Amino acid sequence: xxxxxxxIAHRGGGSxxxxxxxxxxxxxxxxxxxxxxxxxxxxxxxxxxxxxxPQFGRTVHGAGRVCDTNAAKLAAMDAGSWFGPQFMGEPxxxxxxxxxxxxxxxxxxxxEIKPAPxxxxxxxxxxxxxxxxxxxxxxAAHVPGVNDASLPLFSSFSFEALLAAKAAAPDIPxxxxxxxxxxxxxxxxxxxxAVALHTNHKNLSQALTRAIKEQDVGLLCYTVNxxxxxxxxxxWGVDAFCTDRxxxxxxxxx
Length: 254
Description:
The chain is α/β, with parallel strands linked by helices and 254 residues long. The chain is built from nine helices and nine strands. The chain starts with 6 loop residues before the first strand and ends in an 11-residue tail after the last strand. The model has no long low-confidence stretch (mean pLDDT 97).
């Protein structure tokens, strides 16, 4: 059984707020979402921060790379005005700040480990170590099958990052994230001791869904933004999905 929420706000606030910011988390919460997905990358000084792109220019103005910029400078950057003037000055938040917000508001987290190229193992290790510290009480109180949703779920396109996170924080569950499901997906899930497979809904079929669910693992899809597709994949047996359209697909849709 899937122990986590089924409808997840993509990057915090979907299409209604600047992605991967505290403003996005507040937006998702205001729309009733107690489940969010967001991306975590390392700053130059090894601090996990919320960021999707390794380079500036799309959500943060300017040139340069996240991995070449320290956390203090990132926190002073504007990650909101690209989305709209009402978000001007919205900073790049640290993972710790967002985790604190989510824990206080009982928001479940799908933490996508998003390493910059060349920092796969380091990012997985650091994010794992920090998560283990932040959720020490929840880890100690965890009873499998009873309160699984008290812990976040790691995911990553980087197999190496997930292996490092597993070594650093074995008690935090993992989901193997892929665009197209590879032929060796079962072997990779076993190596990660993963509880779920995460994939692009566009590359999923009903037959493949059935084959995955027969292996007794969770199946999460990204990023589903229409009512028709949301109903279809849930009917197939998909356990959960992320959406940008939190204004259209509510947290209780499933």
